[in-house]
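Lecture notes, continued. The same structure-token format from the folding unit now serves as the input rather than the output. Read the line below as a description of shape only.
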């Protein structure tokens, strides 16, 4: 499976609690932090929930 680099680019302040929990579930705590995940439906769903707060890049 492909790997994804997920970087938080916007603040979670003033976001709904479900989106804050999504960032925590992805392992993101601060702006500029980058985490690597396997591409699977669960991770893609979490990314879709907070797509306006993160940038995603596929690693081969």
């Amino acid at each position: 499976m492909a790997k994804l680099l997920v970087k938080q680019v916007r603040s979670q302040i003033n976001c709904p609690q479900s989106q804050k929990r999504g960032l925590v579930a992805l392992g993101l705590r601060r702006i500029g932090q980058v985490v690597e995940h396997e591409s699977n439906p669960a991770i893609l769903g979490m990314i879709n929930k907070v797509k306006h707060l993160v940038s995603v890049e596929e690693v081969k």
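Point for the exam: The radius of gyration is 11 Å.
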